[in-house]
């Protein structure tokens, strides 16, 4: 009897060892998968939410509905796609409003994981931030009052042009003005609604920013001139050193391009 018990115990232990050894060759557990994440992705997962800087004053791209206080738009949909890639759940996002002047510092401080806010990719900016491949290409444009009679950039000789602080619009328009041999004066504003108000009030003669942004402010009293300057490639920015996140963002954008999902979103938001 004692001998039989010894044999049974030995068999049970043997089965246990085989079982433990077999589990190592199967599918990775969630804990094992999480352990393989880059540190920056793991930090986001541990927090439970993706923090994104977006525009809240650019219709179609990122705009806050004054009635509901909800922010939505093309770039918010991009943030949702990235969150789905990280969490498997597109709702795990926290979006914070940024301007051309504040988006960089908020990334630098670590308050944001990424910025999807009509952020133009430039060689200078790539020295400070990781950028995804472009998800939209636009050009700097000009909006004027219909009553002004202005039909092109030459007509703005000696006039005032309103631009956003820290945006690329000023340099683009100045370069074209120099080519034409005309003089223009720039007034810088913190937000796009402020520039539009200045145009309506006659404090500036022109509102200049990327064409797709201007279309969101077009009304019966204004017109957008056909001129387009300096192609503006929009990319999603993340902090230098967060290379795992940068790769995930870029993979997501390129997968959306390949699948046609990016074009569907542009069509959904009627972006021109």
Automatic annotation (TrEMBL):
Keyword set includes Glycoprotein: no
Domain of life of the organism encoding this protein: Bacteria
Domain Solute-binding protein family 3/N-terminal: 49-272
UniProt GO cellular component terms: extracellular region; outer membrane-bounded periplasmic space
InterPro entries according to UniProt: Bact_solute-bind_prot3, SBP_3_CS, Solute-binding_3/MltF_N
Residues making up the signal peptide according to the UniProt record: 1-28
Gene Ontology terms describing biological process: amino acid transport
Keywords on record: Signal, Transport
Family: Belongs to the bacterial solute-binding protein 3 family.
Name of the featured protein: Major cell-binding factor
Lineage: Bacteria, Bacillati, Bacillota, Clostridia, Eubacteriales
């Amino acid at each position: 009897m004692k001998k039989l018990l010894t044999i049974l115990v030995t068999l049970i232990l043997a089965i246990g060892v085989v079982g433990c050894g077999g589990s190592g060759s199967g599918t990775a557990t969630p804990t094992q998968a999480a352990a393989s994440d880059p540190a920056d992705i793991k930090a986001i997962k541990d927090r439970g939410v993706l923090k994104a800087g977006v525009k809240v004053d650019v219709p179609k791209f990122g705009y806050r509905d004054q009635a509901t206080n909800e922010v939505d738009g093309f770039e918010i949909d991009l943030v949702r796609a990235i969150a789905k890639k990280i969490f498997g759940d597109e709702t795990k996002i926290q979006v914070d409003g940024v301007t051309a002047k504040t988006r960089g510092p908020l990334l630098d401080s670590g308050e944001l994981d990424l910025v999807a806010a009509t952020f133009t990719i430039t060689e200078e900016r790539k020295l400070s931030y990781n950028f995804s491949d472009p998800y939209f290409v636009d050009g700097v444009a000009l909006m004027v009052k219909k009553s002004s009679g202005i039909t092109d950039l030459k007509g703005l000789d000696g006039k005032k042009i309103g631009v956003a602080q820290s945006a690329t619009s000023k340099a683009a328009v100045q370069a074209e003005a120099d080519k034409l041999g005309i003089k223009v004066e720039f007034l810088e504003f913190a937000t796009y609604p402020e520039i539009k108000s200045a145009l309506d009030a006659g404090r500036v003669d022109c509102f200049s920013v990327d064409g797709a942004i201007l279309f969101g402010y077009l009304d019966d009293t204004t017109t957008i001139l056909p001129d387009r300057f300096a192609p503006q490639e929009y990319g999603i920015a993340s902090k230098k050193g967060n290379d795992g996140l940068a790769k995930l963002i870029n993979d997501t954008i390129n997968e959306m391009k390949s699948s046609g999902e990016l074009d569907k979103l542009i069509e959904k938001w009627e972006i021109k």
